[in-house]
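A note on notation is needed here, since sequence and fold are reported together in a single record. The reader may check this reading against the record printed directly beneath this paragraph.
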Amino acid sequence: MAVEVLSEHACFGGVQGFYRHDSDVIGLPMKFGVYRPPQAAHGPVPVLVYLAGLTCTEETFAIKAGAQRYAAQHGLMLVTPDTSPRGTGVAGADAAWDFGDGAGFYLDATEAPWRERWRMASYVTQELHALVPREFPAQADRVGLFGHSMGGHGALTLALKHPGLYRSVSAIAPIAAPTQCPWGHKAFLGYLGDDRPAWAAHDATELVKDGARVPPLLVDQGLADKFLAEQLHPNLFEDACRAAGQPLVLRRHGGYDHGYYFIQTVVADHLAHHAQALHA
């Protein structure tokens, strides 16, 4: 599986690169980013995968979050997949900002016409998971997962659905109960159809209620987030974790909104959270 180098840039003693490969899972070329910290020049390092939110690409976090500084300090490789297939030719794929292109929701669609290409769950947990340690100096058995908004939903649900695959998990302003919000209803109805029980398998709150567990969680939420009340519902996730005994630290931050200024504010804590578990 050849990986094409799109660009590479020196960054905090390491290298921020962007790459493309022909995905067997998606059936189309997929782009992703990798930050190799300076420690990777001397041998394999732990991996931290970041799942971005709606409308984002493989470049967004790498450009906006300022995380490479902390990845270099902790010796962590950062991996940033795209948020959906691109160039699919599917009619209507670019008709809405919260569905289709840039909005894969980190699940495998079961409904036509989405099911052939929109297979982001399998792409992240299988294909990309295997590709990174094969092509980069990465420790395949030391992988963490985190994300923001739709990507926070992806991080929580993929970790809960694949116990043991990720040693550490966290989320920033995640869509924590998508079966109970408009974004989730739109995505699930389109990708999964009107099979409401199937939706619960992609809802972090419902997965915790059903017995799924992950390593201790860190979640950060801004209280000035315009999506908090209608879309995110961290309180429902917090209640489910408390009732189930799932370790969770949910930090609420007054004055912070949903964007990358908030991510920049908390990203150092998230990388420290993952470094502690990945280097243990």
